[in-house]
Amino acid sequence: MGAVESIDAATKKLAVKTDAGESAPLDLTDSTAYVRIKPGARDLTGAEPLKISDIAVGDRVLVQGNPATRVIVMSKADIATKQAADKSMWEKRGVMGTVTAVNAAEQTVTVGVRSGMPGTPAKPMTISTNSRTAVRRYAPDSIKFSEAQPSTLAEIKVGDQVRALGDKNAESTAMSAEELVSGTFKNIAATVLSIDEAAGTIEVTDLDAKKPVKVYFRADSTAKRMPEMLARMMAFMLNASASGGGTPGGAGGPGMAMRPGGGMRQGGGPGGPGGMMMGGAPPNPAQMLERLPAIKLSDLKVGDALIVSSTAGKKDGEVTAITVLAGVEPILTSPSRNASSIGGWNLDMGGGMGMTP
Hints:
With 357 residues, this protein is mostly beta strands. Helices cover 12% and strands 36% of the residues. The chain has 4 helices and 22 strands. The strands form 4 sheets. Strands 3-2-1-6-7-4-5 form a 7-stranded mixed sheet. Strand 6 (60-64) and strand 7 (70-74) form a beta hairpin. The longest helix is centred in the first third of the chain and has 18 residues, at 76-93. The radius of gyration is 23 Å and the shape is globular. The termini are close together.
């Protein structure tokens, strides 16, 4: 299973980049069957026959046998369409937050939901489940939303992060969940010790634990670099929140706002004294970071400050990266620096709780 790297109808050769990151050369024959299914399909019901010429580089395939007896295809275009639809649905009807309580008897999970910049207080929401709710959980070292396994509320604990889809009440204090996905994640504030591009690993120093950590950078991992202005803005907000002033939508001092045309200004804004606005709407850190272009491991260097977002690893001292965020020196050197207080970026970026087929 993987993505098509190359396909040659004349020589009947197919190369697939597997989900493990390896290149698999495969042979096709005159009797190889080709069918297309829609993303999300669990079986071949509704599968459509297609020709070898219909398969394109980037399509997702499941190849049975070598030489292949059957090639099951999800087209790149169909996947992109479904991802866009799923993302829109989760943005409209989804919620994510950090678990503050679990009530197995009442089948509810209470989460703290942050809707603004770092430092904004989390608002509690009670998520109700029932026998029809699809409950899933990330396995250790897994970073793909699609690989979350069937689970129960009993596996969820305080401090976990949860993403749920369902109907919210008017006050956004309660939700009846149709789907709930949980996982144990962490953000590590670190500096780079060494980089091995060939192995896809980064050796870092965990600045809080004061110990080395090996970070595995997989095909679904993402690296970004935060612009200095954005990093300084977030550091400002964390410091203002820690000192009790200037928090978004809160009183206690001058706030900071983004001008629609760029730049920053101090003073209150819509939403209350100290409000932080971008073109009249509260900025969302995860959305801003998601729009940043990806960088490669080769763009990092020894000594860089990073925030590594990851799932909990099976081995102590090893993690698999969801997102590696560089350019965070202003945040990590600020007096109130706390990598975990920045928010649930791991739920929005890279291979975390994104809509991966």
